[in-house]
Amino acid sequence: MLQFTYPVKLTRDRKDGGYVVSCRDIPEAITQGDSVEDAMSEAEGALQAAIEGRIEDGLDIPAPSRAKRDERMVPVPITTALKAAVYTEMREQAVSKSELARRMHVNEKEARRMLDPRHPTRVPTLERALAVLGRRAEIAVS
User: Fold this and answer.
1) CA Rg, the chain, in Å?
2) Would 50 disulfide with which of 17, 25, 29, 116, CB 3.0-4.6 Å?
3) Domain membership flag for residue 70
4) For residues 104 and 132, is the Cβ–Cβ distance under 8 A?
5) How much is the average pLDDT of 31-55?
6) Is residue 139 within 8 Å of residue 105, measured between CB atoms?
7) DSSP alpha helix (H) spans, the chain
């Protein structure tokens, strides 16, 4: 099962105030906030940007580690998680965007845009991509 909820650590910034947020699984996802709530909200955006950057750069997206005692879990937005799942599965199966387009019966441009972070891909399209890759999305609410 692919999951995209990552443990983050909040560290109080004694010098400037607020909290610094870091993620050991995705070190480029670092941010800060004035309050715990602010920092957690910023953490979601930092994780989203880092995962989108990894997709654009053709890098692996690591599976999340288990949270340590001083960490909190932060999910990425659902559409980003779905794009990351399609991307991860494509890499694992060595399926190119051209091959995905052929399997989905869409043109290559549509298959390329599907993983583009700036393109508002619809959830049903991403679910269909996962289906042709032999996977399906499930939502868990906590």
Assistant:
1) 16
2) 29
3) yes
4) yes
5) 96
6) no
7) 36-57, 78-93, 97-104, 108-114, 123-132
Helix axes 78-93, 123-132, angle to 10 degrees: 20
For residue range 50-93, what is the model confidence (pLDDT) as tens digits?
999 999 999 999 999 999 999 999 999 999 999 999 999 999 99
pLDDT value at residue 78: 94
> What is the rounded distance in angstroms from the CA atom of residue 135 to the CA atom of residue 142?
22
Q: What does the alpha-carbon distance between residue 90 and residue 129 come to, in Å, rounded to a whole number?
A: 10
Rounded to whole angstroms, how far apart are CA atoms 86 and 105?
16
Do 112 and 86 share a structural domain?
yes
One domain for residues 17 and 33: yes
Based on the domain organization, do 26 and 43 belong to the same domain? yes
The helix (H) or strand (E) run that includes residue 13 is none
